[in-house]
Amino acid sequence: MDGNLTVGALLARGTERLAGGAADPASLQLDAEVLLGCALGMSRAQIRSHPEAAPSDQRVQRFERLIERRRAGEPVAYIVGHREFWSMQLAVGPAVLVPRPETELLVERALSVQRDSTGRVLDLGTGSGAVALALASERRDWLVTATDLSDEALTMARANAAALGLNRVEFLQGSWFDALAGRRFDLVVSNPPYVAEDDPALAAPGLKYEPRLALAAGADGLLCLRAIIRQAPQHLERRGWLLLEHGAGQATAVARELVVRGFGHVRSHRDLAGHERMTEAQWP
Fold it and tell me: Is the CB of residue 164 less than 8 Å from the CB of residue 218?
């Protein structure tokens, strides 16, 4: 790239630089728009409405550096430092997974099964706080607790809670239920690691920047899911619900684990792509 280019020309050239893989062209343009907006300090709407504007050479060079980072596989959310989830803007970084749109299904089902205006809700492995904060934003009288093993992740989650004015969410450090001795909840949700250790996807450019601790879970990807299912009854109220996100091919195995543990009303739900993405169950 070089200087003296218009916003429209920069967007076209940035999109072209990102091309070459199997990515959807619309997705490539979206990435280029987000990165161009970050480099120029413009919104996507401004980029589209002022294609004739001519940025300074310094801003053009900044855009070029951002494009090269994206070409290397770094997630756009890490490059710009934030990601939208459930209409909330969340700060994200290499200490946490980038929140995915399909995880919004976990929020939707949680709001559906726990209809009471009050309740005690737990989010295990909260990462950036996405699920816990989405639930707290929708149900102001719920008592929401979130745990994570990573102190860095909890620092980011607490910062997101403060930025969104959701300071009543309780954040605790520990592996799964370790920080919750004797405590019970009406609803437990989790998007735990569920990728098999030898899955080639872990070596893909899109995942190599994200924390492996939040992705990989044993030989079959079910290590963390099994641990949560095994411990959950000690922390659920009678008729409490457990909602788990999992891999697209793991619904049958997760449902089997839940039934064997004694859960009832076991049901899996599909995301917008048609994959069985999460499974819910009720403790009797």
Answer: no
CATH topology of domain 94-282: Rossmann fold (3.40.50)
Using CB atoms within 10 A of its CB, is residue 131 exposed (0-12), middle (13-18) or buried (19+)?
buried
pLDDT in tens, 244-253: 999 999 999 9
Specify the CATH class of 7-72 in words. mainly alpha
The stretches of the chain forming alpha helices (DSSP H) are: 7-18, 25-40, 44-49, 57-71, 76-80, 104-113, 130-138, 151-163, 205-208, 223-231, 251-261
**Long-range CB contacts (< 8 A, 24+ apart) of 32-37?**
32/67, 34/76, 34/80, 35/63, 35/66, 35/67, 35/70, 35/76, 35/79, 35/80, 36/7, 36/10, 36/11, 36/63
Domain ranges of the chain: 7-72, 94-282
- Dump pLDDT digits (tens) for 212-249: 989 999 999 999 999 999 999 999 999 999 999 999 99
- Give the Å distances, CA to CA, from 181 to 174, 178, 184, 187, 209: 11, 7, 9, 16, 34
* Structure-token pair, residue 200: 């080639």
